[in-house]
Amino acid sequence: MEGMLMSLALVLPFSEALVSIITVLIFVFSWLIISPNEKFNLFRKNPLPVFPSGIFLLYLIWAIGTHHPANAIDEIRRNVFWFLIPAAVAYLPISREQLNRILYALVLGVVISSLVAFVRWNFRESIGITDIRDATLNPHIAHSLLVNFALFFLFQQIFRYRANNWYARQILRLAGVLFLLFFNFWLHSLLGLLTLFAALILLPFSTYREIPVRLRKYVWSGAVVLIIIPMAPIGRELYRQFHTSMPAPNQVAQFTLNGNRYQNDFSKTLRENGHFIYLNICLPELQKEWNHRSSLKFSGLDANGFPVKSTLIRYLTSKGLTKDSAGVSHLTNKDIQSVNEGFANYRYVPGRMDLSARIYQTIWELDAFRSNGNPNNKSLVQRWAYTRAALSIIAEHPFVGVGTGNEKAAFNETLMRQTPKLRPANFSHAHNQYLNYLVTFGIPGFAILLFLLIYPPFRVGKLSVITIFFLLTIGIANLGDDNLQTHTIRTFFVLFYSLLVFGPPLNTKESTGSFVLNNEHQ
Predict the structure, then answer these.
(1) What predicted TM-score, i.e. pTM, was given to this entire model?
(2) Taking a C-beta distance cutoff of 8 angstroms, is the pair 497, 472 a contact?
């Protein structure tokens, strides 16, 4: 069984199909290791390990009377892992060494899949990838959460074995920490990074008594530094975008070098990299010079389906160039190709896109929405629209929710009413796991769900630092995305919730123990 659990942990970052197959095999073989009668007797003594399975029952009960049976069946099918994994893993005799090997299997899978992401990005043109976040085999947020957990586990292991000197294993652990830390920034997953910082900031508050008095001032200083670190690039990008003010009409050129009049609109303040988009535009010169440089016509659409004219104007603005023939003449052939591919800012081009540019992109989307009120293709703005819709649905169905399978229809109807400018192709559910549960189950159902997940850790008692970090990571990340509705993170959470909360204690030096029945957990 240890081998199967290691295999499941190993393939988590790779394949949803393999995850499903191995999970079913673990469920089947678990009944051969522990007979149904024995499991029932263990359940009567300690039902806590199967509490998470109650969430699957919530989906079943709330599917009664659904208006969309096909959606309900699909939702039940995807959430059956809430039942399979706890029912399989509960009461298995697992030692601390076995649990460590399962954790290392996850780390190995995360490292290998991250290396695969590097390879995919290097061959992005043949694969058809333009966004670095699409290089991972799993959705980038899910992968970044796995990286966070693997990174913290390795870091903790370095300090755990610090007395063993720097032999090969310690060097490998350090190399793993450095690689995963670099990869997390390389991936540009803002939610993943913010979750890591927030979890590390909150961790000392959750483990205060475990911190030696002499080290506490350093821990709090580190927490303050972690608060400041994200503020620096955000502040820099805000200054870069908004430090300039709209010039007076007499301060702006009225004619191009060829003597043609510029079109200047001083009422529009939208910018690219601090430069005003709607100043110094000469459309006749732009069209003539662009059609001379590119096979894609000025009146056509770029690879993303947007007007070439708009993309070109924004791209020239981002480089601080005038929107005329002189500006186009300063573009390289690579710049021309980038515009054809739909990149409206030179900082968005693959190879140039870094974490600062990702932060800037979010700032620009908010500024563009403030300027034109168009929420489409603006991630943060759309998230707010989904949040508003979720709050409205919860207010309309506070007691029983909309039920399993009815969520999509409820969101579509509400978004159509609340945000008419949002195209149906961009309709979605809330990017907040807690709001989505409230939409489905209502307040009483959501309270039951929280009880099923929160009561067992409190009842178990003292938890290891890695367990607390794990719970903090998922708890915080769920504020910014519906992680437990993705196959990878749902399986990751249910598996390691069962192993870490109920498994052998990792805070002590005892190497063996019966799963969930250790005295240290009582």
Answers:
(1) 0.89
(2) no
